[in-house]
Write a structure and sequence with these properties.
682 residues, 66% helix, 28 helices, mainly alpha
Amino acid sequence: MTIRSIILGLLGVAFVCSYTYFNDHVMRQTFFVGNNMPISVYGLLVVFLLFIYPLFRKISRRLALSRREIVVILVMTLASCAIPGSNLLRLFTQTLILPHRFERTEPGWEKQKVMDLTPPGMLVDVSGDEERVLNGFVRGLSIANESIPVRAVPWKAWARPVAFWLPIILSLWLAMVALSVVVHRQWVAHEHLPYPIVTFTESLLPEEDGRRSPIFGNKLFWLGALLPFAIHTYNYLVVWFPDQTLGKIPVGVDFRSLVELFPTFKKGGGEALLGYWQLYFSVMAIAYFLPKDVSLSLGIGPFFWTLVAGVLTSYGIASTGWQGSWPFGIQREGMVVMGSYFAMLLVILYTGRQYYRTVFARALGLRTKDPVEPALAWGARVFLAAVALFVAYTAIVARLDWPLALLFGLGIIGVYLVMSRMIAETGLFFIVTYGTPATILWALLGARALGPQMLLIMFMLSVILFYDTREALMPYIVNSLKLSEDCKVRIGRAAGLMVLAVVVGLAVGIPVTLYFQYNRGLDVAAWQNQQPKVPYNEVIGVMQRLEAQGQLEEAGTLTGLKRFAWAGPNKLALTTFGAGAALVLVFSALRLRFAGWPLHPVMFLVWSTYSGQCFAQSFIVGWLIKSSVMKYGGASIYQKLKPVMFGVIAGEMLGGMVPMVVSLVYYLVTGDQPKQFLIMPG
């Protein structure tokens, strides 16, 4: 760890947090981050290690970065990837201001006075200069093609809401970083999780003595890299020159026509699932490194869900009785997924119960039989302190009743912990959940006990902290800690640097995003700009139901623990939640009891989700490749072919870099929007 590595890491943080909005919403290209294995970062890593690093080393060995320095830069940059995209800034600024616009356009808002439920300081105050603060945000302040000066942005209006939200964000994220340090030793040393993404990353890094990784001299590596790189590059040429090329090379086959042969499968959404038949080379390669039960489960899970959903629909089981809509509504898919996450959390805690008990006991100053590393004890202390800060601040400033704040915060952390476990065990770098902790509390307590204001506050917190989980912070941290320790960077120091990266990333990302938005304005009809009205519309629906039942006036009047006396659980929702939990627990027990059990309970965490559907076919193909190699070639051939799979991942990363570079050059030269080209799911 050196000063220059930290400085370069911070420059990487600044670049990711300032360029992402430009790439995603100005040039409108595929997401610059997009998932927990961003092409932008890993593609640049491959380019650097292939071309720039050897050049630096040839010029001067002092100029070339060491293995540890590269890791420091990488983990700091990865930590910042949680900020500019879907995990935060894709919705953050819009959520703080656009409700004022929707108050005038959405039916029922003024009649129900739903905006009065918003705690003071949560939203931007537009009353002082509505034309500049609100309308300037929507339409943009620039004239013709001239960019506005930085001072034209109404920074003062944004100071209070940003100050309102930052302690909530930072306390929760600090808790997740600290908890990642705590679970690190259990997952690495005791459970020996494979960390597939880290395995790929380490294969590229230079040796301890500075020599370039031997993987780049392996012909099988280049053989694997050539196929995805060539296909993606050619298909990108087809986008630009459709008349001069022979048409796109299909990456997969559309099997939707087959759904007509299976009516039950069709009723469960089979047509959409079979339409996702696009193969992702990186996913197939990652599946090669996984135990066969894991890749098979991730592959067939969505097909099982579609069949189950079709059977339920055919018999009219649980097709009615739900409340609200995605993502906060009490819905079948959300309840099943959240139940599965809850059960997997119990499995994680049970498996490492002795270890976690020892670490937290030592953190509280109690004597323990087994020794505990200082970094782990401090991680537990910081976690407890950060959770306490989140609960206190959310209760006092955001006005969320403290028992709800505690349950809501622990619920978010619990889901992200399970997601982190998934990426460490399966390499599934694109994870989207259904349902939220707010939804579970709604299903458990009922609208009468919670009241409209508590629901609105939890929904608003969910929009900021838990809306699109594809780029979550904790999975980045878990992978980065493993990479750091393997490359002899202390995990305590690595965690501290990642916290620094998050703080700097927020300091850069928020003002840069605001500048772009006030400079160019927004497409209000775009998906991300419609989401700030969802919490309010959901609460209006709740208020209307409570009013029809004659309970609106008394709803939410009890506070603290007394609130639980009015609990009115949604039996259908909790039954569905319990079914999802039971499946995970049963399959976990069978997997522990029988060594040859063929399916992994991770299947139920993704089987009904968009991310599970996108990657299902790729996992099946990866499973078939590994099974065939093991059956006909044995363990020796399996080991020899690993460089091919490393090359496949690197080739897809390089193939993704070409459109990013070409799009930027094209935009800078012409000022026109480049043509869009997607490699990963949008």
